[in-house]
Amino acid sequence: MRSWFNWVLVLALGCSISLMVLLLAVQAAYTGGRSPLRALGTADVHHAMWLSFYAATVAAVLALVLAIPTGFALARWRFPGNWLVEAILLIPMIMSPIALGVALLLVFRTGPGMWVEEHLLRFVFEVPGIILAQFFVSYSLAVLVLRTTFAGIDPRLEQVARFLGCTRWQAFRHVTLPLARNGIVAAFVLGWARALGDFGATSTIAGAVKGKTETMTVAIYLHLASVSIDQAVALSIVLTLITVVGLIAVRLLLGGERR
Amino acid sequence: MIDVQGLVAHYGSFSLRNIDLRIETGQCFVLLGPSGAGKTLFLETVLGIQPPDSGRILLDGCDISGTPPEARGFSYLPQDLALFPHLSVRRNIEFGLRIRHTPRATVQERVARTARLLAIEPLLDRPSLRGLSGGEKQRVALARALIVEPRVLFLDEPFSSLDPAIRRQLHVEFAEVRQRLGLTAVLVTHDHEEAAALADRLAVLINGEIQQSGPPAEVFDRPANLATARFLVLENLFEGLLRPTAGASGACEVSCGHVALAVASNGPARHSGRMNVGFRARYARLHKAPVGSGSGLARGCYLGILEGFSASCSSPRAFVRIGGQDGLRIECGPFADPAILPARVGEEVVVELPPERFLFFSEP
Predict the structure, then answer these.
(1) Chain centre to alpha carbon of residue A53
(2) Pairing state between β B273-279 and B359-361
(3) B86: chain A residues, CB-CB within 8 Å
């Protein structure tokens, strides 16, 4: 006879799956069999999609460039307070996106940030602000994935490479980096999807200016506010599909790494 | 030649203390020790992976203590081989040459030569390492280490994960390759058989300290202290009281319980009192017990009962109890064929323990 504990597990799993399927199903049901793409035909929506893809891609690439050496250092170096550094780097992932946006806003309203804003590059209510906000939300995720990836690569491989004539950089470039390829792609995909879906940090620093700083998530919010439900749902479905495809890709990549 | 002088290093709370070793060019030097003795720390310190706390490492007279690993001219074959899983067999082997931007023709020629030397030519076109046996991986890793023509090859228990038959075969092959290339090798292992098979010179490392070094036959035959004797499995080791033999001028004996063992007087003359004594099983000889046994046995000969044989089929040994039920159990052998022994199990036998073969360990 199956124990009661097995039934609890089955029930929990069933509830979890039902909730997720419900979220997807209600969106599909709302379209009533009509193609959601028809609602995506306006110029505003096109701009929002282009801006979202552009900003998320730039942010995810920048996050990856910084997260690769950071993740490697965290995986290889053991020093007192190691855990604290890791915790600090993960703050943007756990922090409320709006609070993150407020913090960024304050950076550019005080001290050196204000100087940058006035003399170098404008971030507040501008596209660079979107990229910066999305960089922060995707960076922590990328660091987390890459730290785990690099920790899973035997440092002995780098040591052997050095005895075969590699400098530290060459050992990293020719041995560690190729072995971390799947983890790097996974970090990019997850970071990109996270950036694409951000609303709180993005809208706090860059505002919700139609046709200027209107990303997909901001567009969903603005369409809902103006009761353009069809377009809000269509954009939501697009975002959901991107997330699902991204998760499948990550699953395949990381699964392949484990095999 | 590598000259290690007063090397001190630590990893966590464990430390290597005052290591002094000299490794001659062309020699296979084996560092033998139990798990946790500090063998890998020694290797990593000499290789430059771990910084030493103090001491010097000289390579042909030049201090290389501060030289980065890639500039030392060493190759390293770790226990897990560390083959690059993202590269093919050929790419693994030629890795060191490609990093050095060696011309393509030279790379091909040296890969072919090394593959021929290690009999791995059929493996060169394998697209990945998957499907290679343990022995094949071993040869590929060795080829990768040798192709860069290192001044010294360091090996960290590289054969330990292999089946005994393949391990022995690789011992022979490695010794042949090393001699053919005139290669200097430093190998660390916990395996006595491997050490005996490969070493030109042997050092025993226990608890971070070199206990003894010398030719392998000498080290195995005459362990310098009790810890080494125990690690090298000195088969017969007893605690006893050393004293002059009554009525025999200059002769000594060791009393182990009520059994007195005759020992040579020259060695223990410097020490006396309680100590450990031991001797190798191969020096104990068995003879047929004379009729009316018990009297007239020569010095160093003892009457005992043949109790049985060890189960090992490669080196069967006999166990003889001397001095009655609460006497000493002596291990003798190995014997090529137990059938030729002078007695059957349960019968009386004379065991001869040459007094000059006894070793003395005065430490507790």
Answers:
(1) 12
(2) antiparallel
(3) 175, 178-179
B329 phi and psi, to 5 degrees?
-100, 115
The count of CB pairs under 8 A between chains A and B is: 57
Q: How far apart are CA B292 and CA A27, in angstroms?
A: 105
ipTM score for this prediction: 0.79
My answer on whether B130 and B87 are in the same domain is yes
A40-258: CATH class: mainly alpha
Q: Which residues of chain A form beta strands (DSSP E)?
A: none
Asked if B85 is an interface residue toward chain A (Cβ–Cβ < 8 A), one would say yes
> CB contact, 8 Å: B74 with chain A?
yes
Give the pLDDT score at B47: 93
Nearest to A235 by CA among A73, A15, A41: A41
Q: How far is B273 from chain A (nearest CA, A)?
A: 51
pTM of the shown model = 0.81
Tokens of A205: 């620093």
Answer yes or no: do B278 and B356 share one domain.
Answer: yes
| Residue to test with chain A: of B45, B67, B70, most A Cβ within 10 A | B70
Give the Cα separation of A195 and A134 in Å (integer): 5
The pLDDT value given to residue B265: 67
Inter-CA distances, A203 with A139, A175, A200, A224, Å: 18, 41, 6, 15
Q: Same domain, yes or no, for B191 and B285? A: no
User: In this predicted model, what pLDDT tens digit does every residue of B327-340 receive, in sequence order?
Assistant: 899 999 888 776 77
The tens digit of pLDDT for each residue in A189-205 reads 999 999 999 999 999 99
Q: Give dist(CA A236, CA B343) in Å, integer.
A: 92
For B279-329, give the secondary structure using H, E and C: ECHHHCEEEECCCCCCCCCCCCEEEEEEEEECCCCCCCCEEEEECCCCCEE
Same domain, B31 and B132: yes
Q: What are phi and psi of A185, to 5 degrees?
A: -65, -40
Question: Residue B247 sits in which domain range?
Answer: 234-361
Confirm if B43 and B93 have CB atoms less than 8 A apart. Answer: no
Q: Which helix (H) or strand (E) holds B32?
A: strand B28-32
- Please tell me whether residues B203 and B163 are part of one structural domain: yes
